[in-house]
Structure formats: structure tokens, C-alpha cells
Write a structure and sequence with these properties.
By secondary structure, this protein is of the alpha/beta class. It has one domain: Rossmann fold. Helices cover about 45% and strands about 15% of the residues. Strands 2-1-3-4 form a four-stranded parallel beta sheet, sandwiched between helices. α2 (about 40-50) crosses α3.
């Protein structure tokens, strides 16, 4: 099985998981999330990651998404995954957003992980742009 694991500061990972499950149409057991909460130490967060990964087996794959490259959630999760012996079958990406994760979740079982990540990164980057609404000058004149 391929698991998508979300880690973040605050409640971002759980909120993103909730949105993914809403869009994917179900409460997905293959999408896992945990967060480094305010005041939580690295050891406690590492234990949360271990608990989260308790059902992951040596032949499963993990696609790990984190909110920030180099942040404590990503580095602690990576160290924990390494301790569990799961690092060789783990792909890690920092800077997660909804298009990135939903694209991955919906295509991960149909393609090789490297292809899934490439497509997901392209989809996520394609959603990053300023959104502008043109002002209607005619309406301004009527006021």
C-alpha cells in the first residue's frame, strides 16, 4: 500500500487531510496526518509519528508531505521514518498544498511514485498565481 503522510506545524496537516477526504469522497485510511503543536517537544512529536505509522509495513510506501522544507515536522518525521527502517521506501516533499496532495492521493495507486510526484508538483505549481478581479468602471460611476 502507498500511504500519504502529512506533517506540519499547528493544525495544518489535519485540516488538509480533512479537505482531501472531503474531495476524495471518503475518510481515507491511506492518508495520515499529525502536527507539531505549540509547546510540543520533538520527542513527543516523534512518538506521534511512530503511532501514526504503526500499521505501515516494510513493503509499503510512504509519500511524506510537510509544510516547510527544513522545518521540525519534516526533519523529525524523516528521522523517525529512518529509525523505523522505512526510509528506503519513502519519498519526501516540502511545501504541501491542497492541489499537491489531492493529485497525489488520486493517482498514487495507478502510477510509479516518481511519476505521481512529478505530476503533483506540476499541478500544485500551476495553482500558484495571483487572483485578480477586474473592477467594472461603469459601476463606480453610478455610486
Amino acid at each position: 500500500m502507498k500511504y500519504v503522510v502529512l506533517v506540519s506545524h499547528g493544525e495544518f496537516a489535519q485540516g488538509l487531510r480533512s479537505a482531501v477526504c472531503m474531495l476524495a469522497g471518503e475518510d481515507r485510511s491511506d492518508v495520515l496526518a499529525t502536527s507539531l503543536k505549540d509547546g510540543m517537544g520533538a520527542n513527543e512529536f516523534a512518538e506521534n509519528v511512530k503511532t501514526l505509522l504503526k500499521d505501515v509495513k516494510a513493503d509499503d510506501e510512504i509519500i511524506l508531505f510537510a509544510d516547510i522544507v527544513g522545518g521540525s515536522p519534516l526533519s523529525t518525521a524523516a528521522n523517525t521514518i529512518a529509525e523505523l527502517g522505512l526510509l528506503p521506501r519513502t519519498t519526501m516533499v516540502g511545501g504541501m498544498n491542497l492541489p499537491l496532495v489531492i493529485t497525489t492521493v488520486l493517482s498514487k495507486d495507478d502510477e510509479e511514485t516518481s511519476e505521481v510526484i512529478a505530476e503533483a508538483l506540476e499541478a500544485a505549481q500551476g495553482q500558484l498565481h495571483e487572483f485578480k478581479i477586474a473592477a467594472d468602471d461603469d459601476e463606480d460611476e453610478e455610486l
